Every structure is written in structure tokens, then in C-alpha cells.
Amino acid sequence: MRQRLERYFEFERLGTDWRTEILAGFTTFLTMAYIIFVNPSILQDAGMPYTGVVAATCLASSFGSFLMGAWARYPIALAPGMGLNAYFTYAVVRGMGVPWEVALGAVFLSGLLFLVLTFAGIRELILYSIPSELYAAVAVGIGLFIAFIGLSNAGIVVSNPSTKVALGDLRQPTTALALFGLLLTAALMARRIRAAILLGILATTFVGAVFGLVRWEARTYSWGEITATAFRLDVAGALRPGVLEIVLVFLFVTLFDDIGTLVAVGKKANLFDRENRIPRVNRILAADASATMVGALGGTSTVVSYIESAAGVVAGGRTGIPAIVCGVLFALALFVAPLIGAVPSAATAPALILVGSLMISHAAEIDWLDAGVAIPAFLTMITIPLTFSIANGLAFGFTVHTLLRVLVGQWRSVPWLVYLLTALLVARFFFLHGA
Questions:
Q1: Number of other CB atoms surrounding residue 175 within 10 Å
Q2: Chain centroid to CA 15: how far?
Q3: Looking at residues 276-288, what average pLDDT do you find?
């Protein structure tokens, strides 16, 4: 049995062993386990039951990671996406007034469309036609967006009628606690401790409890609590004309998010072949689409491939075993995490800020001396946080990229699919409300 598994996962060709692969799985899990606490903290701002979202997060992450490892055979773990959960909560539910049940329906439909597009080969075509600098710009823009939300949740940045935003009162106890968590977590990260974000969240929560800033009661939890978000999605509501655009936004945003992660992890793990393509790429894309549908059924926002998977790759992971290990650990967390109770925003805000800071590094991949590259990239990055919308930033930067290519006479270098996507985005600006 062991030899059969080693042949299936190509241990000999990839030059790896069980110990390396399993340790890589633990490494990846520790770097992304913060999502168990951060995702529910964000989605509860949409009115969703915290404990139910914890369970849904663990379930969707376990299913997606296991499917990715066992079927696609890559060391890529999956979980609800940072940035997409913020878009779900702050743009769709709170900004547009869409009930969270309807928003979950939109997430489910986007996953279903993803699956159809994957098996039709369209996602693969898009993957290999979008310019790489826009991948980087999207990652940076989402990082700024996440960091801005974290700074706001911490009370470090507040609204101001004269200047739009301003520095908050750093003497406020919860803001001071968030600053403590920010410095502690940053120090752990600087010391290259793998579980820095998770340890920072737990330590900040503990300090907050000591000073009476966290209210926590030891209690058991019922089946009703951990299933409070399960099967609550409203698919019919998501099909209404005013909401259907959200499905397309989830589809488009997730496409860019997953492609960016796939390219980043793929480069680090040497997944690309001589033709600069990834073998079994459709299995990767089908795995995240399926996990998104399962996550929506359970009660969480869009599930994506995680850039933290690169930590496991650095630790030596090359096969699907690290992703399977992550799947098992997320399943075990399902029975433990709800007992912890709600983690305060002062503890999770530093995680948002620092996750955002990690995503800024992608700016180095952009050729800032080439205006045709730099301008669309910059517009993508800046409009995501300033319009409080990932979709607006994507649409704006992508459209400008295509139009600049045409205006400078390089229209022949633009793939036909990019023209099609640009036309759809222009139509969105003119005929649909901004998301």
C-alpha cells in the first residue's frame, strides 16, 4: 500500500519522502490556521453566527485541501480567501444591503460557474492569457484593502469629515491592545516563526483577557450552534437582476485571486513544465470551485488556494501529501475551535494588517519603468482600497491595460480573450452599478 501511494504521488521523480511531506503539511497549516479565527471575525460583521462560520471554515478548508492533495496531487492548501471575505461582508452585505443568505447563494453560483468554465477549458485559457503584472497588482491591491480594514478595526485609522480618514485615539484600551498585537506578531514574523500570525492572535487575546478587554465564558457548544450557517444560502435570491452582478464579481475576483496564488506557488515549487504550463491545472481549478460550493453550503465565503502553501513548499513539500495533512488538521480543528469563543477584533486586526503587508511584496514583480505596465498596475492597486472594492480595482486596471496597448499600437500582442474580458468590463461600467 505504501509503495503504491509513493508511486501515485511520484515520490521518486520529485525526490521526496514521507517525513518531509508530512512536516511540510504541518508547516503550511500553522501558517494559515489564523483563518479559523479571522474569517469568522470578519463574517460576523455581516450578521453571521460566529460559531457556525468557524465550523464552515474548518469544513470547507478540510474538504478543499484534501481534494487538492488527493486528486490534483499538489501541495496547495485551500481555505476561505482573505479579501474575498472582506468583500463579502463590507461591500456586498453591509455596503449593498444584501442579506448574507443571498450573498452565500451568490458564492455558490460563482463556484458552480467556475466548475463549468473549468471543464470547458475557459479558465485555463484565461490563466495563460492575462499579463503577469496584473496578477501582482491585484495581490498588492488586495493587500492594501485588507490592511486598511485591519487598521480601521483596530481603531488606528478612523473616519474624518474633513480629511476622509485620520489617526485614531491610540490611548483607547482596545487600540492599544491591537498595537501590542501588531508589534508582537511582527516580531514573531521577523524571527521567522512559522505560526507567527496564529500565535500573535492567541497571545493578544490572552493579554486582552488579563486586562478585562475580552469577555469569555467556558461553555459547551451545541449542534445547532455549529450548524447555524449550514444550508442557509438563498440561491434563488442570488439570481435576481440586482444581485446577479455579485455572482459575476465573485467569479472574476476569485479568478484573479486563484491565478495569482497558483502562479506564485507554482514558481516556488517548480510546478511549471518546459512550455511554462502546469500539468493537471484543471484539477487544481476544479478543486477550488468544488470547495467554494461546499463552503457556501456550510456557510462561508469563497474558498481559494492559499499563498501560505509556499511555506510548505519551502519546507520541502512537492506532492499532494502536505495538502492532505492540512485537510486532516482542519477537520480536527472543527471539534476544538468553537470552544475558544469569539476572538476580539483587537486580536485579529493585526493579522489583517500583516497579511496585507506580506502581499505588498508582489509590487517588485512589476516593471515600474514601463509606463504601459506601471500605470494599469498602479490604478489597480490604488482603486481597490480607495473605492473599497476589489472588483472596481480589477475592472479599472484591466481595462486601462488593454486600451493602452491599443493606443500605443501594440494591439496585435493582446490575446482575443483579453479583448473579450475588457468589453465585458466596459459594459459593466456603463450598464451596471459599481460593486
A1: 18
A2: 30
A3: 83
Query: Residue 102: which H helix or E strand, with range?
Result: helix 100-119
Measured CA to CA, the distance from residue 88 to residue 342 in angstroms comes to 19
CA distances from 384 to 136, 250, 371, 378, 416 (A): 13, 14, 20, 10, 26
Give the separation between CA 39 and CA 33, rounded to whole angstroms. Answer: 10
Helix (H, G, I), strand (E, B) or coil at 267: helix
Domains of the chain, residue spans: 2-431
Cell of 334: 472543527
Tell me the per-residue pLDDT of 366-418, one tens digit each, with 9 for 90 and over.
889 999 889 999 998 998 888 876 667 877 888 898 999 999 888 888 878 88
Q: Is the pLDDT of residue 260 over 70?
A: no
What is the DSSP track for 159-184?
EETTTEEEE--TTSHHHHHHHHHHHH
Sign of the torsion angle spanned by Cα atoms 374, 379, 384, 389: negative
Who's near 343: CB < 8 A, 6+ residues apart?
A: 37, 41, 201, 205
pLDDT, position 435? 45
The dihedral sign for the CA sequence 240, 224, 63, 347: positive
pTM of the model: 0.74
| 421 membership: H or E segment, kind and range | helix 416-431
- Angle between helix axes 345-359 and 132-154 (nearest 10 degrees) is 160
What is the rounded distance in angstroms from the CA atom of residue 160 to the CA atom of residue 169? 13
* DSSP classification of residue 344: P
